[in-house]
Amino acid sequence: MDIWNRHFECMDRSDLRKIQSERLRRTVERVYFNVPYYRHKLQEAGLGPEVVESIDDIRKLPFTTKNDLRDTYPFGMFAVPMSEIVRLHASSGTTGKATVVGYTRNDVSTWSEVMARTLTSAGAGRNDFIQVAYGYGLFTGGLGLHYGGEKIGASVIPVSGGNTHRQLQLMRDFGTTVIACTPSYALYLAEAIQDNGISRDDLKLRCGVFGAEPWTENMRKEIEEKLRIKAIDIFGLSEIIGPGVASECQEQEGLHINEDHFFPEIIDPETLEVLPEGSVGELVFTTITKEGLPLIRYRTRDLTRLNYSKCKCGRTLVRMDKCLGRSDDMLIIRGVNLFPSQIETVLLAMSEIKPHYRIIVDRLNNLDVIELQVEVDEVFFQDKISQLQNLRNRLQDNLENAVGLSIKVTLVEPKTIERSEGKSKRVIDNRKF
Amino acid sequence: MIISQLSVFMENKSGRLAGVLEALAKENHRILALSVADTTDFGILRLLVSEPEKARTVLKNQLFSVNVTEVIAVMVPDQAKEYAGVLKSLSDLEISVEYTYAFSSGGKSIIILQCSDNKKAIDVLKSNGLELLCGEDLIRM
Lengths: 433, 141
Known about the structure:
heterodimer; A: 2 domains; 4-stranded antiparallel sheet; 11 helices; B: 2 domains
């Protein structure tokens, strides 16, 4: 199997360390002098721009969280003037404020490079037709796959998400060989192919790159059997660059992190100490080549572990396990990030509803469905069906506007949602990961 | 002539209606009339009882969402044309009926009505010579 950038992907690890050390040194210098927010953070920690001599010095540096990005919304953590920024992406935020990320021309080029590696390691090449069924737009999924696909010289079909009927038509008529979408949508497509009486022999699909949401080995098996393809897991987050942070190779034994660009650490989310090699903990990334939005020790909240042994594929890049969960309460619904606090904000803004709620997530026919149960306040309850239905519809609309997901609202009787001291069980996730 | 009715919010799941009635049974309440309006997810139970305020307290203590609402009751012979006549006399004066339910016994129908303007409805029905009932009348029946 081909390797896109053998020089970096198969580099001797001690050589890689030297490059990482130099890149980290330059990154810290850059944020110290160009991002007031980071300068203050470093100064508070008693650190100057020259703190980094080797990559090991990363442990001295302060962490960055999603809150830092929110506090500096929209562009406060950018390290270049806006004239250097050629692209903006954003993810939905918990308080109505999105997390905004900006790319310089070089960043877009880095992104294309790591996506080219991703697609090549998935087995794609210039003769492939890549159907990008991730959403295009502010979400990084669509355009990330798109640029990577063009970089390797494949024929990219930018169909974007949704419209299953058209997906199937293009897949058959254009002879799509590689499909890129969320794993749950892949299963949905597999069933739609059957339901539409399309013969698998009429399709040329041979591999799929799936990410943006957690999935299990069982789901992989099911996708591979039903679609008769190789299903490759990819990982990324917009704050770091988007898709392209890590991806599986043909061995499917962990996701290779492009650590010449994104330096990973595993920490204990409570003590914030770096954990010994092989331990499960929270994944932290430092971008060491990014120009627009360099992030120092960004806490992803994803739980996983790292494996530094050499892979059978020949790559020396460290591998991460499939994410094993989260160290916060974020849910990923159909690839969209959702925090319960976003829902709470909507409820608190509506006086007729008490903020006693429960979120129930399930996967029906391979699609995530989310239900919000809220208690009807006696003060509001006035005996009219239409009034209750209006309330429910209004709440559904407000939720969809705020979080970008359609959420089924169910009104329940008062005091039926369990109250508990401290952290109540507000989320019931029935999906099996 | 205004009658106090209890309205109870109920999730559409088995055992809820029984729960309400059992709570009232423990305190020996009488049920004079009952109707359920339902949607796929939830329903509203409407009840006429002998002692609305006491019954409301019972249900409230059992954590039901319950409210007292005002309805009117009119008694007519149990012929369709009589029911139709009642509704027409209201619609002629642009009084809309939010909901209605009825029961009959001994050749007489008792029609319960929730109107956009209950007081005006009472005046109209009275001026048409119809027999309006109060809560006490229902209890004695």
